[in-house]
Amino acid sequence: MTVRRILTIDNPADLAVLKQVSAPVAVVDDGVRALMDDMLETMYGAPGIGRAAVQIGELKRVVVMDLGDGEPDPEAKEGEDARRPKPRHFVNPEVLWASDELFPYEEGCLSIPEYFDEVKRPARVRVAYLDREGRRVEEDIEGLYAVCFQHELDHLNGVLFIDHLSRLRRERAVARVKKVARERAAA
Predict the structure, then answer these.
(1) Is 71 annotated as catalytic?
(2) Beta carbons within 8 Å of 45's beta carbon, 6+ residues apart
(3) Ramachandran quadrant class, 142 (left: phi over 0; alpha: psi -120 to 50; beta: rest)
(4) Distance CA 149, CA 20 (A)
(5) Residues 109-160: tens digit of each pLDDT
(6) What distance in Å separates the CA atoms of residue 9 and residue 54, rounded to the nearest whole number?
(7) Which strand (E) or helix (H) includes residue 105?
(8) d(CA 186, CA 181)
(9) Does 52 score more than 80 pLDDT?
(10) Of the residues 41, 114, 152, 183, which is catalytic?
(11) pTM, 2 dp
(12) How many Å apart are CA 126 and CA 89, to the nearest integer?
């Protein structure tokens, strides 16, 4: 597994990639599974809870996530993460149905570092995808799982969470990210 560089909106070349629509995956093979492993390694190292392939420069409809809801780890030492990893893998994910009820959640994104804002998304969704072995799965999801799924699906469609904000809030987010990048470069 390899930790890959995460594309960010302060880099014009990265932003151009992030705004593209990702291509469907024809078959879940060892290459796709290796990509998912790299994505998880990158996500855990960041740290984060979700990653779309486009965020590491791969324009493929692949998403991974780990919401930190794995089984308790009885061997965890004090101060360590007390949950076992519970990675989820999604190839060619799609939303089949979405509730009218909205769920507000303060979202962040490693491609938009150090900026968080509230986005309202459908509270419940029925989704379909291929799992790590290429089997089709359909499930009803809600809460943080639904938010994260929709956030990452947006990435595959060239949409960033700040695209759901008002123009003023979106411009504020971009300015903040650029300022943080300048400060890091100067340090």
Answers:
(1) no
(2) 3
(3) beta
(4) 18
(5) 999 988 999 999 999 999 999 999 999 999 999 999 999 999 999 999 999 9
(6) 12
(7) strand 102-109
(8) 9
(9) yes
(10) 152
(11) 0.92
(12) 16
